[in-house]
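Action item from last week, closing it out:
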Amino acid sequence: MISDDQRIALCKLIMGLMDGSITDHGLSVLNQQLAQSPEALEFYREFMKNTALLKNGIDLSQSSLSDPISSDFWAELSKYEMTAPAVVVSEQEEGRNIIQKVEYPQREKHKLSKFQIVTLIISSAALLFVVFILNFVRPKEGSIKVATLVDQVDAEWTDEGVRWTNGVGFWTGDSPYLLTKGFARILSNNGADVIIESPAKFEMRDTDEIFLYYGKVACSVPPKAYGFKIQSADFEITDLGTEFGVTVRQNQSSEVSVFDGKVEMASLYDKHYDNVLTAGQAKQVSYGSGTVSDIPCDRYAYKQTWKDVLTSVEVKGSIDFLRASPKSLEQDAFESDSKMFLIEERKSVPLQNEITGLISSGQYTSQDLTLDTEAIPGQVDKPVDSFLLHIDRVGGTSFEQNLVLNGTIAFRCPIVGVLVDTDKIIESDSLFGNPNVDYSDDINRGITGESSTWREIDESTLDVLTLSEDRKTLMVKMVAGNFDQIRILVESP
C-alpha cells in the first residue's frame, strides 16, 4: 500500500505530465515508480480514468485539441468576440396585449466552440486535482506549515514531488527534507532565520524546532523566537537570545559554536549535563561516547548571514581561502612554499575615486604593458568587497628556482577590478585593506613594474592571470621568486 507522501508525489508528477511541466528527471521517476509498484500503477489508472470520465461528459467529436492551446485558444476567443452578432432589443408597442395560445419553441442544440471546450477541460482538470488532493493526498492530521523557503543558491533537493521555488513551505509530519547541494535560507513562522549548508537532512518538528540528522546550520534568532531549538541525535541546543551554528556529521563528532548571545546545551547521552554557552564558546560531542569537550569557536566555518552565502568564494588548486586575516601580511610574516592565500579584507566599500586595474575579461601576463591601465569608475552606489591574494616563500629573499603555483578563484558576483601594480596596491591599502593588519611597502609587492622586467627573458617565468568572460572567475599562475600580492575587488551583493 502506498503512503500519503507517495500519493502526493505521484499526484504532482501526473499533473505535471498532463500540463507538460514535468521535468525529464521527474518523468524518469514517474516511469520507474509505475514499472516497479503495482499500487502506484493502480493509482495512476484510477487518476486517468476519472480524467476520462470528466472529458466524456463533453462532445469532443467536432473539435481537435491536438493544436497548441497557447495561441489558438486566445485567437478563437478573440475571433468570437469580434464576429458575434449584436443583441437587438425590440421596442414594445404601447397598449395592452392579449395573450394568445402559447407555443413553446423547439429547444435549440448548441455546439460548444473550441475555446469553451478548452475552458471546461482546464476547469475539470483543476477540479479533479482538488478532488484527488482531498480524497487521496490529504495533509496528515495535525500537519501545519511552520517555515518558508525564502532563498537558495545552487540548491538541489531530492524530493521531485515538490517544486523547490522560493516561497514553498515546510510542514510538520513530512518526511525528512534532503538538501544535496548548495545553500538554503529558511524563515520559521516565529522569525528564526536559518541558513542550511548541504549536504543536509532535517525535519521541521515545530515552528521553533528543527531536528538535524546531518548538515551545517547557522541560526539568527530574534527576541520573538526566543527558545528556538536545534536537536540532533546527540544534543539539543536551545536559543537564549543569540546567533549560533551547529554542525552534525554522519558517524562523526558534532559541534556547536556561539557567535553572539547565549544558548543552553543539553546532552542526550547524559540527562544531568546542562550547560549555558556564551559568545565565543564552542563544544564538540564525540560520536558514540557523547563526550563533550571544549574547542575553539570558528565563526568563519559558518555562513552566518545570507550575504556570506552570496559572497562565498570557491578556490581550487594551490589556493586556501581565509576569512580571518593574520595580523601581519608584511614580507616574511606569513609564509608557505606550497600555498597561495586568498584573504578577505573589507566588505561594502564604496568606490569614491577612480582606480586603474584589470577590468576586462582575457588573459594577461606580467610582461603585458597594458596591465593596470583601464579605469575602474568610482560608483558610490555600487560598493565592493576586497580580497588579497598573498604569496610569501619560506625564508630568505632569493632562490635558485622559482616556485610555480596554480589555482582558480570563483566568486558569485562579478570582479570589478584586479590591482597588480605595486604602487596601486600600496595606494589602495588605506581604502581596501584591513585596518587591523600590517601591510608591506616593499617595491616587489605586486607582479608588475621594474621587478618584473627580468621575466621577459623566459615566458615560463611569467605570472599569468585569466579573467573569465562573465568576470566571476580568476585563474592564476604565479611564479613566485619570493613575495607577491594582488588585490581583487568584487561587486558587493
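Closing note: The first strand starts at residue 145 and ends at 157.
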